Amino acid sequence: MNFLFAWRYFKAKKSTNAINIIAWTSIAAIIVGTTALILVLSVFNGFEGLVKSLYSSFYTDLKITSVQGKLMTVSEKQLQQLKQVAEVKNFSKILEEKAMVQNGDYQTVIYLKGVDENYQYVAGVADHLINGEYTLGTADEPRLILGAGVEDALGVYADRSLMPLNIYLPRKNNSKQIDLMEDISSDSAWAAGTFLIQQDFDNKYGITTIDYLRNALRVNPDQYSGIEIALKNPGSEDQAVRALEKIFGNGYQVQNRYQQNRSLYSIMNVERWIVYGVLCLILIVAAFTMIGALTMLVLEKQKDISVLHALGGNRAFIQRIFISEGLLLALIGGGLGMLLAAFIAWLQITFHLIPLQGGSFLINYYPVKLRLADFLLVGATVFFISFIASWLPSRKAAAQEFSLRTE
User: Fold this and answer.
1) Given 43, 103, 228, 320, which residue has the most CB atoms within 10 angstroms?
2) What digits encode the pLDDT tens for the residues 215-269?
3) CA-CA distance, 124 to 121, in Å (whole number)?
4) What's the longest Cα–Cα distance across the chain?
């Protein structure tokens, strides 16, 4: 009943043309705000999916590390139990240490990551090689797979290098004085390949065989920096974590991808909500125009309010009519805005109309991903702001009905 009155008021001709203009202006503002919110959130979804896919090429589903210290001791029994976990597809034992790598006059500090033969089945580095080949070498003749940024810093081409690279590693030492002969490992290794994933990894990491790194650091055979794990089904993460925690106990921690990249995901989430809050200002502007349109409508419908009062309409009934009028404007504007946003997003997904400038990205267009949750969030926001905007004019209409009754 309330929406029937609201619809009739919306369609009816107004004595003052400004009421129609303001009403349609508020609808247009809601359309623009709704469209902008959904499109921006969809672009964030696209970039988030892209970044997560890149990070998932380097970070594995789960990672086991020590709660305290850089190294953890893993027994053969624990490794056998790990193999028996049903949710685990494969795992790789890793050692990681900072190293200085030198190529003639060029040198840089990197994180040297020693991995075993299973690493290519656990992480996606092997699928992101742009030069050379994925080969780790042996303990005596190690090979290096460098990030693209590291390769550039060293001035070397991994697939056609003429000289081996010098690697300097610190060895564990309890002495207060450094013995350059005993406490610094100096070796040489040929560059085998180059990977290109994301700047955080490309400028920071080099990968080699764990056997070489263990010998260079003089680490015990049962000591590792961590164990990286690939799951058969990412949906079984919780079951896998419980099983691993039971095997390794309290001295170890099992981290999923989110926990390994907590700062990244937190920053992305904060940026998303900040942009959402800023774009809500468009809807707040639309709310002001809606207040103006409904206030003028209340003034024009004084006779109708008197008739409804005479027919038995109470204060709450009058108020609900004008709230319904505001929600009707929100429904029209929000619905058209969502349809327009979905259409523009489809055009971008299909035809890549809006390019990314600069040419330094893995893709050359803005990625877009539509999510039902965004439509529900924006729809709820539009209706909430519209309800608040309708509240003041509706109270004025109800107060007018009450004054007529007292007269």
Assistant:
1) 228
2) 999 999 999 999 999 999 989 999 999 999 999 999 999 999 989 988 888 888 8
3) 7
4) 104
Question: Rounded to a whole number, what is the distance in angstroms from the first to the last CA of the chain?
Answer: 27
Question: Do 122 and 229 contact (CB within 8 A), yes or no?
Answer: yes
What SS3 string covers the chain?
Answer: CHHHHHHHHHHCCCCCHHHHHHHHHHHHHHHHHHHHHHHHHHHHHHHHHHHHHHHHCCCCCEEEEECCCCCEECCHHHHHHHHHCCCEEEEEEEEEEEEEEEECCEEEEEEEEEECCCHHHHCCHHHHEEEECCCCECCCCEEEEEEHHHHHHHCCCCCCCCCCEEEEEECCCCCCCCCHHHHEEEEEEEEEEEECCCHHHHCCEEEEEHHHHHHHHCCCCCEECEEEEEECCHHHHHHHHHHHHHHHCCCEEEEEHHHHCHHHHHHHHHHHHHHHHHHHHHHHHHHHHHHHHHHHHHHHCHHHHHHHHHCCCCHHHHHHHHHHHHHHHHHHHHHHHHHHHHHHHHHHHHHCCCECCCCCCCCCECCCCCCHHHHHHHHHHHHHHHHHHHHHHHHHHHHHHHHHHHC
Each domain of the chain, given as residue ranges in start order, spans 2-55+264-406, 62-260
CA atoms within 13 A on the CB side of 86: 5
Global pTM reads 0.78
What confidence tens digit (pLDDT) does each residue in 274-292 have? 999 998 988 888 888 888 8
Could you tell me whether strands 143-147 and 184-195 are parallel, antiparallel, or unpaired per DSSP bridges? parallel
Return the sign of the alpha-carbon dihedral for residues 261, 262, 264, 265.
positive
Judge contact between 211 and 243, C-beta under 8 A. Answer: no
Contact between residue 28 and residue 215 where contact means Cβ atoms under 8 Å apart: no
Mean pLDDT by 10 residues, the chain (407 residues): 55 59 84 95 91 87 94 95 96 97 95 97 94 95 96 91 92 62 86 93 96 94 97 94 95 93 86 91 86 81 70 76 85 95 96 79 84 96 93 79 47
Q: Which of 359, 314, 362 is nearest to 46 (CA)?
A: 362
User: 345: number of CA atoms within 13 Å, CB side?
Assistant: 24
